[in-house]
Amino acid sequence: MKYFTTNRSLQTTTIKSIIGLILFALVSVFGFLLGSSFNEANSKIHLIFSSDIKLDPRSSTNNQQSIKSSSREYNSTHLWSMRLANEDYFRLARLLPCRIVEYVGGPNVNKIDSCDHSSTNEFSIQNTLQAQKWLYEHQHPMDCMNKRFAIIQNFAWSGFGSTFHQIVWAFGAAIADNRIAVYQTPGNWLYGTCDLRTPDCIFLPITNCSILSKVDSNQTIKINANTGHWSKPIHPSIFQNRTFNWYRAQLLFYLMRYKPETLTHVQNTIANYFKPPSIDLHHPYIAVYVRRSDKVRNREMSQAYTLKQYFDLFDTDVRRANISTVYINSEDEQVFDEFFQINKEKQGYYKLLNITAERNVVFASLVHMTNEQRRKIVLEFLSDLFIEANADLHVGTLSSNWCRLVDEMRLVLGKTIPFYTPEQRFLMDMRR
Ligand SMILES: *[C@@H]1O[C@H](CO)[C@@H](O)[C@H](O)[C@H]1NC(C)=O
Ligand SMILES: *[C@@H]1O[C@H](CO)[C@@H](O)[C@H](O)[C@H]1NC(C)=O
Ligand SMILES: *[C@@H]1O[C@H](CO)[C@@H](O)[C@H](O)[C@H]1NC(C)=O
Ligand SMILES: *[C@@H]1O[C@H](CO)[C@@H](O)[C@H](O)[C@H]1NC(C)=O
Ligand SMILES: *[C@@H]1O[C@H](CO)[C@@H](O)[C@H](O)[C@H]1NC(C)=O
Ligand SMILES: *[C@@H]1O[C@H](CO)[C@@H](O)[C@H](O)[C@H]1NC(C)=O
């Protein structure tokens, strides 16, 4: 029996159902083989690996243990490559005022209470682990013979967040119909810059089954991942007792498990720009993503907000929690000048983290790039996503698919401190 601790207010809860995680061994072997040529520390894939996870508020020292299994080492702090909310995070959360936020724009309103860290909280880590295990096993059965399949094809040509949300719809449709989701190869995914032209170019494979049967409208069907499907929301019965927001976020997270090459690239990017060179050494920090340009021009956002409007939202809270490191990203270079001005007014309270990325990249420019240019941009997106998902606090506008994607990943990791947003709206957008 292994233990790890999240929050002191958590009930001691034993999850007997987290068994058979031996399935994960295959993935780690895969990671190990690919990773052996990489920097040792960077190439590890961290997964929860235990037949019996106990969340015990008194066993705070036990989370230092790593869980050994066969020849691989795992530790209980990461899910795939992402760090789960930990004691430091929950300690921070308790310093901030409680808020109940309502996510709108879905089939119903979904509430999240930022101070509910109990095991009944839907976004608890044990719920995430169960869901991720279920999804993994669904997609990696012992035997693929006689299974039902859905081939995801016809990817949407839209912004990264948008196209991914459409894939999530198709994945949900496959699960709702008790089918294993497989990508059509070669696909037409704009951001898939390897020969597969699917998300498998950058993320761990969606499944390990290959399809043997013909497309027959019975055992094997095709599902389109182009735009417009969320107007018919799908909510598979297996997740019927969960909110729409929770279920979608879990599916998204599963599909976006970084593969070792992607993770190594991201960690090298961070090492190039951050001193000290690891994300873990910058906590606590707040991540600010400023979406402007095409979103505003196309009127998806009602207005552009000044950086000061963003800072005014969180300045009091971050001071209360002694957070002074701020990561800023935007496709608009001008945001950094605004930052230097704001920080001057605040007597240099904030310490800036940033990566140098190609600015002013919008969907229209991506379409016209070469594969190689696009590959570089996609990896920059994923570096940014990694930094934002790891942040303690987060700021942005949920009318942006990108910000929603980040918010969903953070929720899956157990980070329920509400998104700071000048829009004052928590959105699960169904349109794009
Ligand atoms: C888990 O692994 C990560 C990444 O290597 C490391 O930074 C962290 O300290 C480890 N945690 C524990 C509790 O060993
Ligand atoms: C897929 O992965 C599962 C779990 O690791 C394993 O049991 C199964 O044999 C694998 N199937 C194939 C076709 O490799
Ligand atoms: C549909 O597929 C199942 C196997 O998944 C098979 O048993 C059944 O006979 C098929 N039905 C038709 C009408 O082809
Ligand atoms: C949903 O909750 C009901 C009532 O608690 C329960 O009977 C049912 O099994 C649950 N469904 C799933 C898929 O967990
Ligand atoms: C981003 O950070 C680098 C240091 O890593 C710095 O040289 C650069 O000026 C920063 N860019 C902006 C726009 O502040
Ligand atoms: C914040 O930092 C100040 C000065 O270092 C310290 O007195 C205070 O206890 C800290 N507050 C928290 C909540 O950590």
TrEMBL record:
It comes from the Eukaryota. The keyword NAD does not apply. GO terms for molecular function: alpha-(1->6)-fucosyltransferase activity. Gene3D superfamilies: 3.40.50.11350. Residues 242-410 form the Alpha-(1,6)-fucosyltransferase N- and catalytic domain. Keywords: Membrane, Transmembrane, Transmembrane helix. The chain crosses the membrane at residues 18-38. GO terms for biological process: protein N-linked glycosylation. It holds the Pfam family FUT8_N_cat. This is Alpha-(1,6)-fucosyltransferase N- and catalytic domain-containing protein. It comes from Rotaria sordida.
